[in-house]
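Lab channel / #folding
Pinned by the channel admin:
"Please post every new chain as: sequence first, then the structure tokens as a reply. Keep commentary short and put observations after the output so the thread stays searchable."

First post following the new format, from NK:
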Amino acid sequence: MALTIAGSDSGGGAGIQADLACFLALGVHGVSALTAVTSQNTHGISGVEEVAAAFVGEQIRHLCADLPIAAAKTGMLASAATIREVAAAVTSCGLHALVVDPVLVSTSGTRLLAHDAEAALVAELFPLALLVTPNLDEAAALAGREVRDLGQVREAARILHRRGPDWVLVKGGHLEAKPVDVLYDGTSFLEFDAERVGPAGGPPVHGTGCVLSAAITAHLARGAPVPDAVRMAKDHVTGAIRHARQIGAGVCADPAWNLYRR
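Reply from TO:
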């Protein structure tokens, strides 16, 4: 069983909706704690309503009181108050297999985490995380340095690892050269090469970060060690991009492509 702590994407391309679909596709029962509701379509986000921070914590604790949650992930957390509540609930519930996807900005450019909450994210949740999964822009913002080539990716991973997580995965899908994701445990690097897939010259594929972190969480819930969970999740998200769906004016990764596309 896996838990997602994230916001709702009313367009269905990312957030809670993508996470739960991905859990299902990988054979894991998914449960959720909602942090925010967005008014969103494929053009962008027109509004965000946060769930009261205390109620986010209540959702997590109420689930943990009844259900055997083997792994959990965070997505959109919105505010420092919510981050503190999530950290307290994760600690009290003993959720050790925690994947933190540090969602800062949406694909369309809407801010999904307040600027003043970035420090809380690092201070409160990174030390509780088994794995954090920033993309290049998120790694740059949180490490406080430019991250544009493979050497800078490795250095950002070192910096972020010192903030407390057991593992750091810096996603290199937007590197100008070959896309390489870098996984670091404080001692050694593992690099995951991948072919570049997706529509060339079109709109960006929405939801890829959510699908990757959800797939990692699902594999952790099934007992995989972190490197294996990352490797299998990368295979899954590659398929999700390859089978991305044209929805409205946008393109969304398909988190459940493997259920009906062989």
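NK: The chain has eight helices and twelve strands.
TO: also worth noting, The chain has one domain: 2-256.
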